[in-house]
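Slide 14.
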Amino acid sequence: MTAVLAKGPFRADHVGSFLRPERLKQARLQKQNGEITAEQLRIIEDEEIVRLVDMQKKLGLAAVTDGEFRRAWWHFDFLSQLVGVELYETEQGIQFQGVQTKAHGVKVTGKVDFHNHPMIEDYKFLHQIAGNHVAKFTIPSPNMLFFRGHIEEDVYPNHDEFFNDLIAAYQRAIQAFYDAGCRYLQLDDTSWSVFFSEKGQEQIAARGFSAEQLAQLFTRAINESIANKPEDMKITMHICRGNFKSTYVASGGYDRVSEFIFGKLKVDGLFLEFDDERSGGFEPLRHVNRKDIQLVLGLITSKFGELENPERIKARIHEAAQYVSLDQLCLSPQCGFASTEEGNLLTEEEQWDKIRLVVNIAQDVWN
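Slide 15: predicted structure.
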């Protein structure tokens, strides 16, 4: 029998976001149109988050999230509330396969810092209703502000100065979440996917970096941001290839940057997409050089409702165990179900069937 995990990541885990209920979507639209107040919207959000947390508990998950129900975006909502950062209207949205997001972005207009961030209160509400379950909270990786943000040159004429302030802000953020009771924090990051394909390599060169330089910069941002985290706090990272209305942006395996991801990052766990052929094979896991890191295999797709064959998923877990001990492996969907408020193209019932499948397979494999 393999060891029971008590602090996360858990054998059956999930990335964090869930489909927004229709009532919540309507309420957010009413608030946008001035028909209800921010206070009235928050009451509805509270009620829907309570229902969501109850459902996660009922299905057997050890960690519960608020589903990112108070957010429109998985990253911009957090980043735009940092000191020195603003949300703004862009000329066009982020391009996925045949679809495009809303035309929003973030820009750095002043020195970056973390102070009085509203998501601390969001976490406190989740913590209050989690009960005996672990309250897990998700925020974007520090790399996302560099990767997706427009940084005004008169504010930060060089990358070093920017990353110094960004890292300091994240160190304060991590301590603030810890002080609020958080012991399981996840950094979500799509920036690493730029290394996975030839197209991505061209984008790196266009930014004036070599792949090695950029990988070192990303690694530094993560490791230094979490360097002061308390011993009893678990910090994981989800590496994503894009998730919007069941489409994605990037393809390719972890091979080109596996020595950094699996050999140099100091996070406690990695949530990894392995749900289809665009994610590559398990061979890069051979670069894992620590016994104290958990790898959460995202073998169940969150993009479509059709259920995977459980025996096939179990076989793939054991295939991954050829490179890393089974004790270091966990299972989850490959991404959240709603990285933006629009959500993926499946029903709430199909979403919960996916979570049941994760829990049932994990029980079979690790109990």
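Speaker note: The CA atoms of residues 54 and 130 lie 9 Å apart.
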